[in-house]
Write a structure and sequence with these properties.
It is a single chain. By secondary structure, the protein is mainly alpha-helical. Helix content is 48%, strand content 11%. It has 18 helices and 13 strands. The strands form five sheets. A three-stranded antiparallel beta sheet has the order 1-2-3, with helices on one face. Helix 5 crosses helix 11 and helix 15 crosses helix 17. It is globular, with a radius of gyration of 26 Å.
Length: 438
């Protein structure tokens, strides 16, 4: 391949590199301060650089090609923010004395709120400055946007919101007990929006790290650790990593099982999560996520079966008793086995109902039953395609008229577009299946 020459050629190459590999952000003051702050705590790293990427936003770039087995990052224990950090702070004495004991989660949230309030006086200010100021998780969205989420994500987002509200209410007395530490009223420092921010920070950014059970905490597992710099690593479902705390080096280490090109983005995998889970827990959607699926609610399922069926109640009872009314999905490979099984049970004829155990085990009860289940799956799939397209039109209109909701609407749009691709792929599979059996 001929090399480009001269200043124009160099500029062109640099522009192309920025577009495909990300824009190096290590010169920004917040990252310079963060690297120095981490270095003072024993962290040395020459393999990664903060960068902005077109698809994922902020992330970490490799400064050299990485091979499977390479250590991506090794973050010393002194850099980690855990409940031990909280207990060694001025909050420690109050936590030790408080009864009933607070949870490890409440302890971490309280610490984050207190340190953010301390501002320049906080030894953790450098890290707090690079944390997102707001969360993109549905728990923080306006109800109008939550309402256009698919089920069961909408329900789960509401459950999370209720959980934070209950946490806020149940923690009021503990927050008030901290008043001697502050000149300002604790009601201002530990208000609902502050707790929501702290809860989302812990929920979206902590790594799993098991700590010994302490009497000063409730019996909830103490498994959280905030990991500055390491938490800039973005998720990809296509990579594999080995991550754990190394007792010998007293560092949290991540080793890659995948390759990464020089100047490419270094990814880790948060787990085999579908897009609904990623949006709920982390506030983003992954394109072409192999783990994604589209859920079919029990209400949608029942629309396709006659309400006057005398055995309808008994069929529903069978499905409920054997946990076949939840987690019914369409995926990249078509309707799930669980969905087809539920459809087969609901499609049993009056003379076939006694064979429901065979249907649950995946046995063929009759050709008619099989065909009806597949046909109903196709009808449900087409219904969900139309419903998804309708919601996408609605979101498109809202994005033009409701500027304040634009970012959150874009996330729902991304999720729904991925759903549409999955449903269209499923419809194609079902159509081919139908042609093969007729």
């Amino acid at each position: 391949m001929r090399k480009s020459r001269g200043r124009t050629g160099r500029k062109r190459r640099r522009k192309h590199l920025s577009f495909t590999a990300g824009v190096n952000c290590s010169h920004k003051l917040e990252y310079i301060k963060l690297k120095k702050w981490l270095k003072d705590r024993g962290f040395e790293d020459n393999n990664l650089r903060p960068a902005e990427f077109r698809e994922t936003g902020r992330g970490l770039m490799a400064t050299k090609a990485l091979q499977a087995g390479d250590l991506i990052i090794s973050l010393p224990e002194k850099c980690l923010l855990t409940t031990s950090t909280v207990l060694s702070s001025c909050l420690g004495r109050y936590i030790l004395e408080w009864k009933p004991p607070v949870s490890p989660l409440v302890a971490l949230c309280t610490f984050l709120m207190a340190e953010r309030h301390a501002g320049e006086r906080s030894p953790w200010k450098t890290y707090l400055d690079v944390l997102p100021k707001t969360s993109t998780c549905p728990v923080c969205w306006e109800q109008d946007v939550v309402n256009v989420l698919p089920e069961p994500l909408r329900r789960k987002a509401q459950e999370q919101r209720t959980k934070i509200q209950e946490l806020f209410t149940s923690s009021q007395a503990f927050f008030s007990s901290l008043q001697p530490l502050f000149a300002e009223d604790t009601g201002i420092i530990f208000d609902y929006s502050a707790l929501e921010w702290a809860w989302c920070t812990v929920n979206t950014r902590t790594i799993y790290m098991k700590h010994p059970q302490r009497e000063c905490f409730s019996l909830e597992p103490d498994v959280y650790a905030l990991a500055p710099y390491l938490d800039l690593l973005n998720h990809s479902p296509d990579v594999q990593v080995k991550a754990a705390f190394n007792e010998q080096t007293r560092s949290y280490e991540i080793q890659t099982n995948s390759q990464c090109k020089k100047y490419g983005q270094v990814f880790i995998c948060y787990g085999p999560h579908d897009n609904q889970q990623l949006l709920l827990e982390y506030g983003f959607v992954a394109r072409d996520n192999p783990h994604s699926s589209v859920h079919v609610s029990p209400d949608t399922l029942l629309k396709y079966f006659p309400p006057l069926d005398k055995q309808r109640k008994a069929k529903l009872s069978v499905l409920k008793d054997h946990d076949f009314l939840e987690n019914l999905t369409f995926g990249w490979d078509g309707p799930s086995w669980r969905l087809l099984t539920a459809l087969k049970v609901l499609s049993l004829g009056a003379d076939e109902f006694s064979c429901w155990r065979r249907a649950l085990l995946g046995d063929v009860v009759s050709a008619r039953n099989e065909q009806q289940a597949w046909n109903t799956a196709a009808e449900i799939c087409h219904f969900l395609i139309e419903e998804t397209q309708h919601v996408l039109v609605q979101i498109s209109q809202w994005k033009r008229n409701r500027e304040n909701l634009k970012n959150h609407l874009a996330l729902v749009e991304g999720l729904r577009l991925e759903d549409l691709k999955i449903l269209q792929k499923s419809a194609e599979i079902l159509c081919n299946m139908n042609m093969a059996t007729t």
